């Protein structure tokens, strides 16, 4: 199915869900000026096409550290290694790029021991892994994962969680909070009675926990929908070297571009990484020429088209 099969109302519904993944059907119906039954029918149809609403922890708010790992492998082993990484509970997305010899994955760690076990011991000793690059995400300017988040339909500043950079103590979680994260990772639109049954709490108690987690910036909701169904066939990773004096400006500018669902300042030679979603290679070229080229301080840029997504939008449970 291509984007022509999705009407304007369907795309508007995706837009509204991106703004608030748990918005009730009554609110969505009011915004779309249709009945709740119509909204429910369109929502269920989009779900059959792969739509997911996922509750995600915001790592920086919970004392977690997020890493972008870049692996170069031999061509015969890349697929196997990618699937092994996808099976890990600490990876949230895994993609194949650059001729099938390069892998990217996002890893969330709680402790230095967890970090070292994977980055210093497990991966470097894996057969057929030629090199390992680990980049700590210092500041997330837009988005929460590598997947498309409806950013072509709305301002990127509302696409997922954005790290404001404010330094606050990690939010402490109780057993109810942890159960809610687990349930919302499976279905971000689980009802209050369903969440109450899972936590052993009343719906009103669950609502208070949700309001606290969202109000404290520890929980966000992401929309996962295949961009190909909306006519976007070219996904690519952009690695940039930016002069330090311009890093914040360039990152915040990228966060306003509808082509960019994710951008972050990272450690390493390339200090800014972004994910871009485009209709085709011509649109990617125009973006690099007209949108990236004029930005100040960009010293170099490397593009790596994503060939296949092995895992995406799988949040680590705090």
UniProtKB/TrEMBL annotation:
Residues 173-233 form the HTH asnC-type domain. Keywords: DNA-binding, Transcription, Transcription regulation. GO terms for cellular component: cytosol. GO terms for molecular function: sequence-specific DNA binding. InterPro entries: AsnC-type_HTH_dom, Dimeric_a/b-barrel, Tscrpt_reg_AsnC-like, Tscrpt_reg_AsnC/Lrp_C, WH-like_DNA-bd_sf, WH_DNA-bd_sf. This is DNA-binding Lrp family transcriptional regulator. The lineage of its organism: Bacteria, Bacillati, Actinomycetota, Actinomycetes, Kitasatosporales. GO terms for biological process: response to amino acid. SUPFAM superfamilies: Dimeric alpha+beta barrel, Winged helix' DNA-binding domain. Pfam families: AsnC_trans_reg (PF01037), HTH_AsnC-type (PF13404). It comes from the Bacteria. The keyword Chloroplast does not apply.
């Amino acid at each position: 199915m291509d984007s022509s099969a999705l009407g304007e109302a369907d795309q508007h519904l995706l837009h509204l869900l991106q703004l608030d993944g748990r918005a009730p059907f009554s609110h969505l119906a009011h915004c779309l000026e249709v009945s709740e039954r119509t909204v429910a029918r369109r929502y269920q149809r989009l779900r059959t096409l792969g739509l997911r609403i996922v509750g995600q922890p915001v790592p920086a708010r919970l004392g977690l550290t997020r890493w972008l790992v870049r692996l170069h492998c031999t061509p015969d082993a890349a697929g196997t290694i990618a699937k092994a990484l996808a099976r890990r509970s600490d990876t949230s997305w895994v993609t194949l790029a650059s001729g099938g010899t390069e892998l990217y994955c996002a890893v969330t760690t709680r402790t230095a021991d967890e970090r070292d076990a994977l980055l210093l011991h497990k991966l470097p000793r894996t057969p057929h892994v030629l090199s390992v690059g680990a980049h700590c995400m210092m500041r997330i300017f837009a988005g929460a994962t590598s997947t498309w988040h409806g950013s072509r339909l709305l301002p990127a500043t509302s696409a997922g969680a954005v790290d404001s950079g404010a330094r606050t103590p990690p939010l402490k979680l109780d057993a109810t909070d942890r159960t809610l994260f687990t349930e919302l990772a499976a279905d971000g639109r689980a009802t209050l009675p369903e969440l109450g049954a899972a936590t052993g709490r009343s719906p009103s108690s669950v609502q208070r926990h949700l309001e606290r987690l969202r109000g404290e910036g520890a929980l966000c909701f992401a929309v996962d929908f295949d961009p190909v169904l909306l006519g976007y066939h070219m996904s690519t990773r952009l690695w940039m070297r930016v002069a330090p004096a311009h890093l914040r400006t360039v990152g915040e500018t990228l966060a306003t571009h509808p082509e960019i669902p994710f951008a972050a300042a990272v450690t390493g030679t390339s200090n800014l990484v972004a994910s871009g979603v485009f209709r085709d290679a011509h649109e990617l070229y125009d973006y690099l020429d007209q949108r990236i080229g004029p930005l100040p301080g960009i010293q170099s840029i490397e593009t790596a088209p994503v060939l296949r997504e092995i895992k995406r939008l799988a949040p680590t449970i705090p």
